[in-house]
Design goal:
alpha/beta; TIM Barrel; 2 domains; eight-stranded parallel β-barrel; 14 helices; about 40% helix; globular; binds iron/sulfur cluster
Length: about 375
């Protein structure tokens, strides 16, 4: 295992962290019961080979992930890792909820402290309407004083401007967690956000390194680019190496759901290093990025300038689901992303909520006819 600097903190962390969000389940069903024995074997296999960071969250696997994480870390494994989990910010409706949920998480984990505690999935709305409104930052500091939590951080899903606002909104952040992979260079916090946070001394944890597993299953037309390269690596290794190459990345989280994946990812992490990509390697990633870009059916850059939509439509995500269909030649994948959008953002997030007011269109730098496309997207992707 290779170890990396973690922002301004003294301690180093393993290049790879174990994400407990996509654990193996009965029949492989999204909402199925977690296969505990397999999960515990995988987590311990990784820790025995030097992995030092395990990440879960209140809602993962309907709450069962925290319980299984606690079990996996028994028998002496807890002392070998940093344990991270996240406060379910969106469920906080009154002052006392924050500590109540934290205590519930400690009980689920069977522990008396959490090493790295994050405010989960922040964006502008949650920052203003919940974190600031309910004074969650002083509450985090208070929990730190009580010894219930260690390092203070947040995970993030919004645009770059919202990211800088949150980073600058509190000078005590010790780390953050952002979505990043070679297709999401300018999506959400993006590479600019990575550098912004690292410049300010935060450790930066990367999630979704494989875009929810999609970059592990490249369409045949893109595999040819990999085959022409003199160095032979799997699509997964190229995606992970692109991240580890960047010195600002402290740790890459992978949501491993089979022992084979754990074995492979541990091997890749053991070969990783900042600055590891040659100019030819970078050209390969640029060629993949270009190929994906030209396979998009809608030229949406995910800039989010069109938001907010008065009807609540998550316009960039609707276009992203549509582009996934053509980029990965897989309508089923796009349909499942679109269905997940309704699960996360509610029915109003879907393209069907568009009332055709066209308030968004003048704000779109790509001049996309948003109101014309949305009904077609809903027709194609709704299940
Ligand atoms: S046209 Fe549709 S998507 Fe655009 S702002 Fe109006 S309701 Fe929202
Ligand atoms: S639709 Fe236009 S404004 Fe909205 S995210 Fe896409 S490119 Fe940006």
């Amino acid at each position: 295992m290779e170890y990396r600097k973690f922002g301004n903190l003294e301690q180093e962390v393993s290049a790879l962290g174990f994400g407990m969000m996509r654990l193996p389940t009965e029949n492989g069903a999204f909402a199925g019961a977690i296969l505990e024995k397999e999960t515990i074997e995988m987590v311990r296999y990784a820790i025995d080979r030097g992995l030092t960071y395990v990440d879960t969250a209140y809602p993962y696997h309907g709450g069962a992930s925290e319980v299984v994480t606690g079990k996996a870390l028994k028998d002496g494994y807890r002392d070998k890792v940093k344990l991270a989990t996240k406060s379910p910010v969106w469920m906080i409706q009154k002052e006392e909820d924050f500590e109540r949920y934290l205590d519930e998480q400690l009980k689920r984990l069977g522990d008396d402290h959490i090493d790295f505690y994050l405010l989960h999935a922040l964006g502008t709305e949650r920052w203003e309407d919940i974190v600031l409104r309910f004074d969650l930052i002083p509450k985090m500091e208070n929990m730190k004083k009580k010894g219930k939590i260690g390092k203070i951080g947040f995970s993030f899903h919004d645009g770059f401007e919202a990211f800088t606002k949150i980073v600058d909104g509190y000078d005590g952040w010790e780390f953050c967690q952002i979505q990043l992979n070679y297709l999401d260079v300018a999506v959400q916090a993006g590479v600019a956000g990575l550098k912004y946070a690292a410049d300010r001394g935060l450790g930066v944890i990367v999630m979704e390194p494989l875009l929810g597993g999609k970059l592990a299953r490249l369409p045949q037309k893109f595999l040819g680019l990999l085959e022409k390269h003199p160095v032979k690596k799997s699509p997964v290794e190229w995606a992970l190496d692109w991240l580890w190459d960047q010195p600002e990345v402290s740790l890459v989280l992978s949501g491993m759901n089979s022992m084979a994946q754990a074995v492979e990812n541990m091997e890749y992490a053991g070969r990783s290093a900042a600055g590891m990509m040659t100019p030819e390697d970078k050209n390969l990633i640029a060629a993949l990025q270009g190929a994906f870009e030209s396979a998009k059916s809608i030229p949406c850059t995910q800039c989010a300038y069109c938001l907010p939509c008065p009807s609540g439509v998550h316009i960039p995500q609707c276009f992203d689901a549509c582009n996934i269909s053509t980029m990965f030649e897989d309508p089923a994948l796009a349909k499942s992303d679109y269905a997940r959008l309704a699960m996360l953002g509610g029915p109003a997030a879907l393209a069907s909520s568009c009332i055709g007011c066209r308030a968004c269109e003048s704000k779109c730098p790509q001049h996309i006819r948003i109101s014309e496309l949305l009904p077609k997207i809903h027709e194609a992707l709704a299940v």
